[in-house]
Amino acid sequence: LSGLGQVPFSLESFGVAGLFAGLALFLVATTWRTAFAAGWAFGTGYFALTLFWIVEPFLVDVARHGWMAPFALILMAGGLALFWGAALALAHVVGTTPIRTAVAWAAMLSLAELARGYLLTGFPWALIGYIWTETDVLQWVSVVGPHGLTGLTLGLVSVGWIAAYGRKKRWLAVLPVPISAMALSGASMTPGPPQVPSAPVIRLVQPNAAQHEKWIQEKAVEFYRRQLEFTAAESNKPPDLIIWPETSIPWLLESAGSALAEISVTAGVPVALGVQRREGERFFNSLVVLGSGGELENLYDKHHLVPFGEFIPFGQTTRAFGLRSFAARDGYGYSPGPGAQVLDLGPLGSALPLICYEAIFPQGVRSSPERPDWILQITNDAWFGKVSGPYQHLSQARVRAVEQGLPMIRVANTGVSAVIDANGRILASIPLGEAGWIDHPLPPARPATIYARTGDWPLLAVLLATLLVLRTPRVRLSD
User: Fold this and answer.
1) pLDDT tens for residues 335-392?
2) Residue 289: enclosing H or E segment and its boundaries?
3) What CA–CA distances, in Å, run from 15 to 19, 94, 121, 130, 449?
4) Helix (H) or strand (E) holding 353
5) 164 Cβ contact list (under 8 Å, min separation 6)
6) By percentage, how much of the chain surpasses pLDDT 70?
7) Average pLDDT, the chain
8) Exposed, middle or buried, 305 (CB in 10 Å: 0-12/13-18/19+)?
9) For residue 167, what are the CA distances in angstroms to 16, 162, 423, 478?
10) Are the C-beta atoms of 363 and 355 separated by less than 8 Å?
11) Helix axis angle, 389-404 relative to 141-164, nearest 10°?
12) Predicted pLDDT at 162
């Protein structure tokens, strides 16, 4: 039930109902061990549904990797559920009365979701607060961030249970009131700055290269030619910048001189594109910006890599056992870049580049050395299948735009490529599984949001203060 609140289902009422059921399972636990079991079982079911797209990379080459798919889903779901199991075990210890226990459930599970976004390189996918991404409640991430929205959601569920405590179930009918108030107040935050008439026009190029065909030589050249065709397409107002997706050419940067020259001549304006490059024995997943004359104006190396997808943890050891990553073509993984950076694009302002997976980390966007004018994400969502993964990835990109108050231009290999304004609205897009291009003016930015200035520290302070109060006997929480 809880997982059905997430994209692509977006059944928010089911998501909230599932959280109530999860709280009920926890409250009947009699020991910290049974509380852990309840949390782990709840989490395993939740992540098995929301992350079932994780099997897709193993199906690209079924003969070699297909057998790993079920194990990957089981291990991922069960592993992430350990955060929830540990949280509920601790909540059982902290809660000394039914009301305190319900509040501890919300606080500890919020802390677990916060920790999941940071520990072991972090994986904040399918956060509980993301059940609201298709509603106006989403606008609250500009104030409290995605982890804060998770905390508010769990807090409302625990308060709803407390209102119903003592068999006064009629009070549950009051729960939609604060949720409706959050939606209405969120809607009031939606109006953004007007579009600037002289805003630069950006072209998004989506080749729709299926992952199983992407590196076949004949197909790779075909996809390259398709992108050149879209780049050369005429429009009423010529674009000021053209963007190709992640790993959009089949050559390493060092050997792609003739191709880069051809791209520049065809475009006649700067082009940002994804490319792999080599530096000695190290490989990087990169984004480069070609000037209108073919010169290399900017270079960014992805720094937050996907474990097992783009690098193998303890690679020197696991390499001896033949464990290989999926995305890096050398088989053993990429090296991380030095960190977040802002690209100076002249008349187009400054852009924060994100490559694929980096867009799921709010702290990664906040680590930018300076506030950019907009966010540029290139990605290859062909790895994620066609059911839920690409749409969840798009949804999280929208959250980044809202929480920072910055527009985002998102260009994906197979979709969904989109122009997203600073309120998270999709102004133009190319659907999943289609080849094509669109031109659109760059949306304006909003002033820095509260969350952009504070990050997750206020939430952490509130959660720790709540747990301290719950462990203070002198503070009376009447049953």
Assistant:
1) 999 999 999 999 999 999 999 999 999 998 998 999 999 999 999 999 999 999 999 9
2) strand 282-290
3) 6, 26, 27, 10, 27
4) strand 350-355
5) 171, 172
6) 91
7) 91
8) buried
9) 20, 10, 41, 16
10) no
11) 110
12) 84
Alpha-carbon dihedral of residues 83, 16, 170, 467, nearest 10 degrees? 30
- Residue 206 pLDDT > 80, yes or no? yes
- Residue 289: pLDDT over 60: yes
Give 468: exposed, middle or buried? Use CB within 10 Å, 0-12, 13-18, 19+: exposed
Two tokens, residue 274: 């994804």
Q: Which residues pair with residue 421 across a beta bridge? A: none
pLDDT of residue 178: 75
| Measured distance CA(455)–CA(450) in Å, rounded | 8
Cβ contacts of 336 within 8 Å, gap of 6 or more: 301, 302, 303, 304, 305, 311
> Whole-angstrom Cα distance, residue 358 to residue 303?
8
Whole-number Å distance between alpha carbons of 184 and 172: 20
pTM of the model: 0.92
The pLDDT of residue 131 is 96
C-alpha span between 110 and 127 (Å, rounded): 10
What band does 329 get if pLDDT is binned at 50, 70 and 90?
Answer: very low
Judged by DSSP in three states, 379 sits in: strand
Residue that wins the pLDDT comparison between 120 and 411 = 411
What letter represents residue 11's amino acid? Answer: L
Distance CA 338, CA 358 (A): 14
Give the residue numbers marked as catalytic. 246, 302, 356
Q: Look at residues 391, 447, 387 and name the one whose alpha carbon lies nearest to residue 133.
A: 391
Dihedral angle at the C-alpha atoms of 115, 46, 302, 318, nearest 10 degrees? 90
Amino acid at 77: A
pLDDT at position 326? 47
pLDDT at 412: 98
- Enter the tokens of residue 341: 């950076």
What is d(CA 91, CA 79) in angstroms, rounded to the nearest whole number? 19
Give me the mean pLDDT over the 86-105 stretch: 93
